């Protein structure tokens, strides 16, 4: 019930500089659980922004009254990756040694925001729920840590999918929880939920 909402939320997106991507933003209003209305859209051309600084942007909403105030920073991203199991980033002994030095006790206060990183190997799922009429599912897996989100490819018509992917996340808060959710891809419709597990980082 506000015409001047303040969200104060931060989201990290993994942007690869060889792509000319636009950041698309939509503002919605919600009357109740069933009724939603689009209040406006705007775009940010990422390639036009200066790097390594925080840019304060006031973006007018297209075809609607109002504007959106955002802080956008484009900075080099370390630690985030998706790779196949055979080229696991921690599989190289020299890289492991570099990481050990980077997070050694003597370097603890060099960068307080760099807590560490988490590497997750998503191997397979077993005996998933059948979401399709044919008794199969088209499962994919989404990994979320804080506001970071990465996902596997979809394995079609399979209740025992094998993904064999390695995901690497930078850790910003040691109290975060890794959430791993399995969905069934359903064409143009929203995916169906097949199951979820939550792993607190402090339990690893």
Short note summarizing the structure:
Helices cover 5% and strands 44% of the residues. By secondary structure, it is mainly beta.
Give the helices and strands, then pairings:
Blueprint: E1 22-30, E2 36-45, E3 54-60, E4 67-73, E5 81-84, H1 93-102, E6 116-124, E7 139-145, E8 148-151, E9 162-171, E10 177-186, E11 189-200
Antiparallel strand pairs: 1-2, 3-4, 5-9, 6-9, 7-8, 7-10, 10-11
Task: Describe what you observe in this structure.
Helices cover about 5% and strands about 45% of the residues. It has about 200 residues and is mainly β. It folds into 2 domains: about 1-75, no CATH class; about 80-204, Immunoglobulin-like (Sandwich), CATH 2.60.40.150. The strands form 4 sheets. A 4-stranded antiparallel β-sheet has the order 8-7-10-11, with no helix packed on it. Strands 5-9-6 form a 3-stranded antiparallel β-sheet, with no helix packed on it. It has a two-stranded antiparallel sheet with strand order 1-2. The mean pLDDT is about 85.
């Amino acid at each position: 019930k506000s015409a001047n909402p303040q969200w104060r939320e931060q989201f990290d997106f993994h942007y690869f500089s060889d792509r000319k991507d636009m950041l698309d933003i939509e503002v919605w209003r919600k009357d109740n659980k069933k009724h939603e209305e689009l209040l406006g859209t705007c775009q940010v051309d990422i390639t036009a922004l200066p790097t390594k600084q925080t840019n304060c942007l006031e973006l007018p909403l297209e075809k609607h009254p109002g504007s959106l105030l955002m802080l956008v920073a484009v900075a080099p991203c370390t630690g985030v990756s998706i790779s196949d199991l055979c080229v696991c980033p921690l599989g190289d002994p020299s890289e492991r040694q570099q990481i050990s030095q980077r997070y050694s006790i003597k370097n603890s206060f060099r960068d307080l925001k760099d807590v560490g990183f988490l590497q997750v190997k998503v191997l397979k799922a077993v005996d998933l729920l059948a979401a399709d009429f044919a008794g199969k599912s088209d499962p994919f897996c989404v990994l979320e840590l804080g506001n970071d989100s990465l996902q596997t490819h979809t394995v079609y018509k399979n209740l025992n999918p094998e993904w064999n992917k390695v995901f690497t996340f930078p850790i910003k808060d040691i109290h975060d929880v890794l959430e791993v959710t399995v969905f069934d891809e359903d064409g143009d419709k929203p995916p169906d939920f097949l199951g979820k597990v939550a792993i607190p980082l402090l339990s690893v």
